[in-house]
Amino acid sequence: MSLPKETTVTCDQCHKAHPFTAWESLNVTLDAECKQQLLKGQLTQFTCPDCGWSGEVLYPMLYHDMEKRLMIWLWPAEGDPEAAAMPSPSSILDNCLPQ
């Protein structure tokens, strides 16, 4: 299971805030279509509905591919991630197990 989180992004050009879906956890084995969207940059791309400005939104994400036995914690900030910013162990395990 993947964990989308609704957040707000402020446009760099017109400075208006808009809703944006960030993914705390992305299990590409269970949500295969999301893998292609991520690779195309669609899950990190924001386009302002007011002025049309477009840019990349960087955010932490746990990427998990069960078939390849691969799990990557994407952390775009400098330094080590804060423990509070990481998904809880129970949510990680829930994401690993097929529903």
Question: How would you sum up this structure, described in words?
Answer:
This protein is an alpha+beta fold and 99 residues long. 16% of the residues lie in helices and 35% in strands. It has one domain. The protein has helices spanning 32-39, 89-96, and strands at 3-10, 17-27, 45-47, 54-56, 61-65, 70-74. A hairpin with a 6-residue loop joins strand 3 (45-47) and strand 4 (54-56). The relative contact order is 0.22. Mean pLDDT is 86; it is low at 95-99.
Number of helices: 2
Give the overall silhouette.
globular
β-strand percent reads: 35-45%
Content-based structural category:
alpha+beta
Distance linking N and C termini: 8 Å
User: Which runs of at least 5 residues are low in confidence (pLDDT < 50)?
Assistant: 95-99
Mean pLDDT over all positions: 86
Give the number of domains.
1
Helix content: 10-25%
Q: Trace the largest sheet across and list its strands.
A: 1-2-5-6
Give the strand tally.
Answer: 6
Order of helices and strands: EEHEEEEH
Question: What does the largest sheet look like?
Answer: 4 strands, mixed
Radius of gyration: 15 Å
